[in-house]
Write a structure and sequence with these properties.
The protein has strands spanning 3-7, 10-13, 18-25, 34-39, 46-51, 58-60, 68-73, 78-83, 92-98, 116-117, 121-126. By secondary structure, the chain is mainly beta. The radius of gyration is 14 Å and the shape is globular. The chain has no helices and 11 strands. The strands form 2 sheets. Strands 2, 4, 5, 6, 9, 10 and 11 form a 7-stranded mixed beta sheet that branches.
Length: 127
């Protein structure tokens, strides 16, 4: 059974940092692209960052460029999201996701392309 478990969320002041982790189990996740999404109250789920199977290609949403970094450790079946210079508008529930029906080099960009999701972790940035 595929399982994704996020951790590392919490409450932080503006300008602070958090590191989210997503531990995957149930499959060889080193073969597949993974992504981090977020959803704020009343808003649609949006892609924050994504990474292909070997880390050779990544995507960062414009508002997080230069502040957030996605990475993965395939030996640990874990993907990370390092978030620096956090802003109140980064407040949301953050989800990790994996696409298991694609083994190419492209980075999936939309929620519908992903196969499995974690339960989410809350990130709250105070001003």
């Amino acid at each position: 059974q595929v399982q994704l478990v996020e951790s590392g969320g919490g409450l932080v002041q503006a300008g602070g940092s958090l590191r989210l982790s997503c531990a995957a189990s149930g499959r060889t996740f080193s073969l597949y692209p993974m992504g981090w999404f977020r959803q704020a109250p009343g808003k649609e789920r949006e892609l924050v960052a994504a990474i292909n199977w070997n880390g050779g290609r990544t995507y960062d949403e414009d508002s997080v460029k230069g502040r957030f970094t996605i990475s993965r450790d395939n030996a640990k079946n874990t993907v990370y999201l390092q978030m620096n210079s956090l802003k109140p508008e980064d407040t949301a529930v953050y989800y990790c996701a994996v696409r298991t029906n694609y083994r190419g080099t492209r980075v999936p960009m939309t929620p519908g392309e992903y196969s499995y999701w974690g339960q989410g972790t809350q990130v709250t940035v105070s001003s």
